[in-house]
# Entry
Amino acid sequence: MNHEELISKLKTLSNPKNVKGMARFGIRPKTKVLGISVTELRKFAKKIGRDHKLAQQLWRENVHEARVLSVLIEEIDKVTERQMDAMIKKFDSWDICDLACANLFDKTSIAYRKAVEWSKRKPEFEKRAGYALMACLAWHDKEVSDSKFIKFFPRIKKGATDERNFVKKAVNWALRQIGKRNRRLRDESIKLAKEIEKIDSKSARWIAKDALRELEKHSFK
# Structure
């Protein structure tokens, strides 16, 4: 199935009811939304396999699901830093941001550097990408040393005062996910959360309290 055929097929699966449901969960991108579930898109991706050229064509479409599919079929070893920077500028919803971080960006060799760099961005979803990438690395990269994540702490503390919903939730996610890696990082994350809780910021207090609620009861086998 070529690019044009794939777009036509996706459009036949449009589900207006799902579009409304996505909106209720805060997924309101500027691109056209068809309402196809990620589960269904993963089935497409499995059939297609990794295809850099097709992924590039799909990303250029003004269709939300086409961009999701692009992330799922992109060839990781062909992704460039320039491409990653261009992609985050197109992020217009939390789901495409998180899917890109969890299925593509966190598998690149420059992921740790880009997480810090993007966390300094001003646009909401570009900044979210930095913290979402931190969370995804903590979730997926099982072999890396604790020091890699402790280096994220200054950026997490800095980002905790951002009152924007999709940024503060990603900062919280990063803090919680790092703390769930092992006992040492849990203790360090709890310590950081208590520092953040003292900041005179509604967002910081929410991030800290929510993280502490989860991390203080989290146990390891």
Q: What stands out?
A: The chain has a mean pLDDT of 96. The longest helix spans residues 124-140. The chain has two domains: 1-78, 93-221. Residues 1-78 form one domain.
